[in-house]
Every structure is written in structure tokens, then in C-alpha cells.
Amino acid sequence: MVTPRIPYVLPFPPPPTHPKNATTLTAAIDAVTNFLESRNIVILTGAGVSVESGLADYRGGRGTYRLNRTYRPIFYEEFARNHEARKRRYWARSFLGWPIMEKAKPNRAHLSISMLGKLGVLNHVITQNVDSLHYACHPHLRTTELHGTLRTLTCLTCRSPYPRAEFQKALAELNPKWAEFLHTAIEAGIFDNDYRREGGIKTNPDGDVDVPGAPYTKFRYPPCPTCLNSDDIRVLVDAQGSHKPDGRLATNGVLKPSVTFFGESVAPEAKAEAEEMVDKCGGILVVGTSLATYSAYRLAKASHDAGKDVGIVNLGGVRGEDLFFSREAKGKRLRVDFGVGDVLAGVVMNLGGEVTEGVGSETPLGGGGAGLGG
Fold this sequence. Notes:
The structure is a single chain. The protein is α/β, with parallel strands linked by helices. It has a single domain, classed as TPP-binding domain (Rossmann fold, 3-Layer(aba) Sandwich). The chain is 36% helix and 13% strand. The longest helix is centred in the N-terminal third of the chain and has 21 residues, at 83-103. Zn(2+) binds at residues 155, 158, 224, 227. Belongs to the sirtuin family. Class I subfamily. GO terms for molecular function: histone deacetylase activity, NAD-dependent; metal ion binding; NAD+ binding.
């Protein structure tokens, strides 16, 4: 089997600025406000939107691929077919990282997008993020989760859904020493941002944590309860109820996060919905993403190819900028190199709204997983 390549782990070239006077935050905010005047814009978001929520991004200045050059996410075939990889490289690390994901709350960027929806400026969000913070912050604003959601798991055998929060409880019961360590680590603040950096603990945007020296080989995980209770599907478990692979039955009842892994295709429904929104809109605003994954890049390119408006708000370079800002480009163009939260909060103020930080999410979260990222 050929291992899929992780796209664009190195930084893109420095971005252009458009309009050319948008070199200060105030000018950038005004430029984005003008770009949104048509009120027929779809917003496409990536991991950079969730950085202020305490989550890592991929390709930013302190992103996973910049700080941890050896990082390689688990690929779909590894997870689906390899029991050892599944427990060592995924579920043990996800178990430790889940509290970080669960604690994360929508930040200024999410709240600003929510307000822009209420002001009638935006009517649809497409996100590459699998942290569900858009879903939590603005259920009133239609959101397409392009790479899936952390809230649930899906059985690879029977396709039944299962809440990620409930799965965390099952993992704790099967791994009491890990659960004790996790509780102690949380109480001591080991997973807080500053300590993580100083202690060499590596966290990634998809909710997994790598703790040096942890006994990953001893971790255990349960099977899908629907399959386990089915008369038609045989699932092997040990005396404690942990998944026990054996030959052809090795993959029966395997629960997988409801997200798109590397090496896996984007869900057809999400792909079709995103394409429909881009087809109907007057333009696209790319926010907090380098467009490194093709599933996101193709949406921005589709808007460009159709002669529609293309705007980008992102710190650092973005894939395809040589195309989007070429002389042949039609439609309005926008490119500002400032933080997403600062810019979007300023746009809301320009339009007569207000972003109140500290406001809780409208919808509770539950989930955890790994996806393609933005």
C-alpha cells in the first residue's frame, strides 16, 4: 500500500496585500467590511479560527507541522485495519487529548461569524474544523462540516453513531491507570498551554496528545455496543469488554471518529452541500486556513474560476494565491495578513454590531477525533 502524502507541511510564500493600503489592522478591517457589502458571501474556515480557543493549528507560526516536524497523523487504512496502530497511535492519545477539546469554547472569531449571520451578512459557513465550535456557537447559521465532526463516532461495520463523550467514559473504565493519570494531569495543569510547551507534551488540532514515555501498548478500547449486542455480527472481546481482534473478525465493531482521516474521501453529502453553496454564492471569504487540503482549495478555486469574489484573511501564505491574485482574476479580491479574531470583531463593529467575549456556546458539545485539518 502506498502511504498518502501529507500536503504542504512547509510554509507558503509570503502573501500579497490587497488592497495595497490594507497594511494596518484598521485598514484591513475596513477592506473586509467593504468586501462583505454584497451580503452573498460564503465563509470557509480552518484551524486558525480555533487558535484563540486554545487549540493548535497545523501550518501557522506555532502550528503542529512547524513545531513538530516528525508529526504524522494516523491514516485511514492504518486505523481501519491495524489494531495496534488504532490503540497506540490513536485512541490512547485521543483519550488524553479529549479534555482539551471538551474544554474549548467558541472565541471571538466564532462569535463574530455568529453576529455576521444575525446581521444578514453571511448565510452559510463551510468549515474544515472538526472541533464543532461553529456548531456550538451559531446553530442559527447553517454550517457544513466539510471534514466531519468530533461529536460522534461511527461504527465501520454497522454504521451506527455513538457519542464521543460516552466513549470517553468507556475508555476510562477499561484503562483505570490512564484515567487516574489524566485526572492528576488535569488537576496539576499539565495540559495547560504554557506547561505543554515547557514539558515537551505535543498536542495537535485534532484532539490527540503525545506524552513522552507513556505505555501506549497497554491501552484498551471497547467495540461498538450495537454490534456487540447483535445476533448477526460477531465481535470478540476479552473478559473486561475490550476489543479483541482475531483474524477475519479483527475489524468487526470498530468505532471510528465521524471525521475524514488522511487517505479517506470527504463524505459525499458534505462535499455536495459545500459545492452547492459555492455555486449559489457571489463569492467566498477564506478565513484562518492555508487551503493546503485539496477539499478546501477546490472550493476557493471554483469561486475564482467562476469569476466570483475571493477574499482571504489569514496569517501567512495560502495555497493558490498566485492564481487568485493574478491579472486574469475577475471579481473582487481581498487579502489581509492579520489575525482572524481581530479582523472579524472589527468588521462586526463597523457594521453596528458587538462581539461580547466570554459568551458561552448555544449548543453543548460532545465528541473527539482526527481529521484532515486546515
